[in-house]
Design goal:
248 residues; mainly alpha; 0% strand
Length: 248
């Protein structure tokens, strides 16, 4: 799907999109055009309740295809402050996902997200410390920073709020209190409590969170709000991803 600036998302419709996506444990993503998001929302909303998760996976697979992963790994993840420090782990996770190794892909990506947030905190002379309770405070600061900016955008605040809420209500909530879909919970995964988190859609949910963190870094430190170009290097990598997928 062609990518447009994140600011193309209209403020009037952003809350409705956020509510629809939250109902299936997704959030409003960065770098995806409004037309694609509206299509995704309509597809999910029209589906019968038992089919909504299957529809989510279908639309996310269309959004996050080989071209997207190749372009973003090379042109965004590999260059964005703090995110780029985990390029090797991200590359391995994406490769695992295209090979159908979904448990491995999810388990590799979860600590990457936490690591990025810890680096954001450390840059401002704050420490998250042991555990994850202070991680949410760092995400709240990203929201507050946009709210304090000279020209705050409602759509950005909604996106960053969705990021914070997913961490607080799903990814980092105590395992006993988890009531989301597909066992996408950091503690349940890393402590060996959950076993059925290897759903393909879980990795795509984590990629959405990664790109929102990347977007937050662009807001804080400057850079383009456009999706990266599909360069010859990315085309070569996308071809490799297609070959991996065909071997499954």
């Amino acid at each position: 799907m062609p990518a447009q600036p994140t600011t193309d998302i209209s403020a009037s419709g952003i809350h409705r999109l956020a509510a629809i996506f939250k109902s299936v444990d997704w959030v409003v993503p960065a770098y995806i055009p409004l037309g694609a998001l509206s299509y995704c929302a309509g597809t999910i909303e029209r589906a019968a309740e038992p089919q909504k998760q299957a529809e989510l996976e279908t639309v996310l697979r269309a959004v996050y295809d080989e071209q997207h992963f190749a372009s973003f790994l090379i042109g965004l993840y590999g260059h964005t402050r703090h995110v780029r420090d985990f390029k090797a782990q991200m590359a391995e996770a994406i490769t695992a996902w295209f090979m159908g190794l979904h448990h491995a892909a999810v388990a590799t990506m979860v600590p990457v997200l936490e690591g990025v947030i810890r680096k954001i905190a450390r840059e401002s002379q704050r420490e998250v410390g042991n555990g994850t309770r202070k991680v949410i405070a760092e995400l709240e600061e990203l929201i507050a920073k946009e709210d304090r900016s000279p020209h705050p955008f409602e759509e950005r605040i909604v996106m960053l709020t969705g990021l914070r809420d997913f961490f607080a209500e799903r990814l980092l909530v105590h395992t006993d209190d988890y009531n989301g879909f597909d066992q996408l919970n950091r503690h349940g995964i890393l402590h060996g409590i959950f076993e059925q988190y290897g759903n393909a859609v879980n990795f795509l949910r984590l990629i959405t969170l990664l790109e929102l963190l990347s977007f937050a870094m662009v807001l804080a430190h400057g850079g383009s709000s456009f999706a990266p170009e599909y360069t010859p290097e990315a085309q070569k990598l996308a071809k490799r991803y297609r070959q991996l997928k065909q071997r499954i």
